[in-house]
Structure prediction request, 366 residues.
Amino acid sequence: MEIIKRQKYLEKLYLLLGASIFIHYILVILFSILILFEIFISKEYKKILKDRALVTIGAVLGFSIIMSLFYKNILGLVAIPIFLCLIVGRYYTLEVDVEVKQEILQIISKFSVIPFLVGIVEFILTKGRIGYFAFFNPNYLGSVMMMGAIVNLYLFFEKRNKKNILFFFSNMATIFLSGSRSSLIAVILGIFVLLFYFLDKRYFIFGTFVLLVYILGVYLHIFPFLRMDTFVEYFWLRVEIVQMAIIAFKRTNFLYGHGNFFYYKFTNHVYPHSHNAIVEFLLSYGLIGTILLATVFFRYLYEILKKDRNNILKIALIVGVIFHNLTDFTIFWIQTVLLFIMISSYEEDNKMIKGYRKIKNEELEN
Prediction:
């Protein structure tokens, strides 16, 4: 009886955690601590300690802490809360019931509207990019909204609920308010993955044609784009930032790394990171640590596709996240990493998805 009560309590904490992602990062930290406390008090942590993926990540992050201390990179100690968040996420993936995960995805869908409502107020007060208040950085907000938009569009197709399309448009509006260009491009890629699967081929081809025309129009300065006045300037700035990071990687300890946020120290506290996940991993964890983390990640992708290639939500999510982190580094923020884990742990109703086009064609015929 006591075990059941503890399990129900943990599930409620995870429900609150899923909602808090869209409210404020302080709440995410609070509920993560409560979950960790409950996992360790109830000795539930024993169920995941032998998980190979978690052990590998823990070894990489643990060694990065040692390198952080060696190089006097104090910010590298952020590996500790990162690992704690990953414990929370890994327990969720392996131990939380499928029904609870379905309920949490619905909560994620509904609460994703909150940043839009708060963002309007923030925009009115600041007249600038939103996201600093509840997400620490506009690009973190953009990443969260990118994932939220993919979820809502997916649920619109899967559940055929019109509310989800309204939530989707509010997510897209929030991305525009955040001014996160990388998030906008990433969500477009994720959307096209969903449309490729759910739409009739002729509509998908037409949509692709429209997108290509728009891209050409932006290039020729005919059509507008988000923060277009600084697009070229910031593009070349990103290139320079990545180039400097590659130089730092070559000149220093390229095998073992220097711990998280070494680039911030390397640039005398000018740039917080290299704006590219691959280069950032190389700087933080070295070649060896990056290979180990890449092995875990690609094994995860393999398991998704091996289980069922119709895991379209996960594929769209991964495409969006990978692209965004090639031009920025948002995935290791507490809100983004936990949201990614929660969404990617959702078990899709593949029977319904496989029959989607058949159902739609029958409706059109009738």
